[in-house]
Specification:
With about 350 residues, the protein is α+β, with helices and mostly antiparallel strands. The chain has 2 domains: about 170 residues, Aminopeptidase (3-Layer(aba) Sandwich); about 150 residues, Gcn5-related N-acetyltransferase (GNAT) (Aminopeptidase, 3-Layer(aba) Sandwich).
Amino acid sequence: MTEKLQVKHDGQTPDSPALTFRGFQGETDYPLILSILIESTRADRIVETASLDDIRRWCAPSTRFDPFQNLLFAVVHNPDGEPTVIGFSRFSWYTGRKDTRLYFQTSYLLPGWRGRGFWPAMVQQTERRLREIADSHTFNPRCFFQAWATETQEVWISVLEGEGYQVVRHFNNMLHRLSDIPDRALPAGLQIHPVRAEHKRAIWEAQREVHHELFETVSENWTEERFEAWLANPSHTPHLWQVAWDGDQVAGMVLNRIDEAENRARKRKRGYTEHIFVRRPWRRRGLAGTLLARSLRLLKHQGMEEAELGVDSENDSGAHDFYLRMGYQTFSTDLWLRKPMDMNPGPA
């Protein structure tokens, strides 16, 4: 289906191309999505290494995403009537912290079409679709439109702010060069041993418990029905995980991973120290520092030259300062932007 939308922008002339929207047309759109993604991010000084297989996974149907319903392609029609796809938006929703309902979009526009009113029109049209989704949900007074941006996406940030979005959070992407790794002793009474299949349920339960404390959490990912999907996550590398146990209780963890394909594409040797946390009864005993130091040494032993993590810079726990003390440095910042969605009570 094609949706027509009149777009007004600075410098518009009678022969300016008209903007319409169309939906997803199947796997034949994958190369188009990849091409727009790469060109749009390159214009924002972001190195994108996605492949067609990545796009296929990104577009795979799930409980809250149907590519035929949740992808929108922006199309301009030149005076001769020839259509050209200039961008696309991907949108869906999830439940965040404190039952906040978040209706989000990610949007990409070819650099040659920016600054002409098309990107704001894409945001507005996607918001209309998100509002339709929200209208089908049980009423929730805490509903927001949400989008993300990396600090180099200056045009995209300007578009969102022009549409009434405000930055609500900063996330620092940090890097450790795997030199001067501190030596930390494991607190008394705790043990670390290789992760076995029978451990994974307890690890998942501990993750679920802590995720509900975070600013950025997706409640739908931590329902009982999602456990099998978590087990099958292809990015998991449990032989690299550092999990501390107190008897049969998980005390804390760092779930390390190495993406070999990404490293080859980007010609680097980088590992990731992720899902770093300590459960409440075991906090303030130095466990996080021990797990992280062990993780850094492990990644170095695996031949890595650097380790990356992401952290909410406004985290109440002071995690950002802790990572600085551990030797990490910020190399980029991501922004969370939101706009209240005025809601009327919908179906019960």
